[in-house]
What we know:
Elements: H1 4-11, H2 20-35, H3 41-44, H4 48-59, H5 65-82, E1 86-97, E2 116-126, E3 133-143, H6 154-162, H7 164-172, E4 180-185, H8 192-197, E5 202-207, E6 213-216, E7 219-222, H9 223-228, E8 234-240, E9 248-261, E10 273-281, E11 289-294, H10 301-312, H11 315-327, H12 338-361, H13 376-386, H14 394-403, H15 418-446
Parallel strand pairs: 1-4, 4-5
Antiparallel strand pairs: 1-2, 2-3, 5-11, 6-7, 6-9, 8-9, 9-10, 10-11
Amino acid sequence: MLDSKNxxxxxxxxxxxxxxxxxxxxxxxxxxxxxxxSVSIPERFPLQKEVKGCYRFFDNQETNHHMLQHQHYENVxxxxxxxxxxxxxxxxxxxxxxNSLKWTDLGPTxxxxxxxxxxxxxxxxxxxxxxxxxxxxxxxxxxxREKKEEGADPKAQEERESRVWQEMIDxxxxxxxxxxxxxxxxxxxxxxxxxxxxxxxWDCVIRAKHDRKILVxxxxxxxxxYMRGLPSMGTTTHLLRARxxxxxxxxxxxxxxxxxxxxxKADEDKKSxxxxxxxxxxxxxxDIEWILFTRSSIAFYEEALEIVTIYRxxxxxxxxxxxxxxxxxxxxxxxxxxxxxLTLFGMLGVVATQLLQLKSISRINPDEPAEKYVDKVSxxxxxxxxxxxxxxxxxxxxKRVAMLVGFMGRKSDGSPGWQKIWKGWIRLRDMCKxxxxxxxxxxxxxx
Length: 447
């Protein structure tokens, strides 16, 4: 379970590099980052020569962001094509900020005084209602914005960067036979040309940003006014995640309608796009409203609920970006050049998927006996620490792993997050390593 070395080897094929020494170095660096993702580069390696080797690797012209990730993309797409059921390809953009370090080869960001790198990620997820499973990245693009020239049209930059949504899908390619693949995006994906470009086989769930013109039974309407005028056709509950304080459960009402999405005025000669809009809203909190476009057919409440549930999982891409920034501390590095940062990003971008996967793994078969899914040594160590000899479930095992690093485990605390689980897991693996060394010493003394 969570065999770090074997996993890293699969992400870094030897043919990626002309020099086999680079391959060996890439493996050692990735493994060190996976074991200790949140510390500085010198803290990841016990020997100074390894630290110097890491910096030389980041300076090597053969290494770059895409080279270090492309095998991971292929692995993820292979698993997605073989998996039953619907696969979500959740996209979103973000930025890496280095405002305190004014390096000249970085660029502006969304922050008015920002200095950093823009990026866009696509995360493949097995859709299993309330227990989604992370597969990994299918694409990630990073770029440095050009500094705005006086008098330049701001829309030109926005249009260039909006193409990244389509580029992610183009990179993935057509949907294999007998697969259900759905791209999921927030309001940034509400682009007519993007929806229009989706080939047959691709579905989408996209939150509306624009108050478009739509046709309903041949009559033209404004999207938001029309959807807000529909009566509730069903309800569902939704756990509203809070950035600070406890989460809370709210009731969402739902309505849906079949429409034709009309093209914007600048492209009036284009054909309309047929699909459905689903609206989900909370009457007690008017800030909670989703108007979602999908190409799936909706005739019943359960089909509309599935679209809302799919969009609920969009937060996973934000959690992934949090893994990068908080878990891997990528914005704290002192590499000083964009090329070095982008090479590091190529590695940490993949490592962060493993951090996020831990949360999924910890919730699979929670009531099954832990001994069926975890190694005996780690289970015995935890049972000895907590002096509990009762049969442990998978849920109890992972709760105790998180408690090694400060998770309280009270009923009101809910399930531990990926950060506590990962830190606890690393600490537990160190304990297991100590047991292994002790066995070797005993064996040597007995010879």
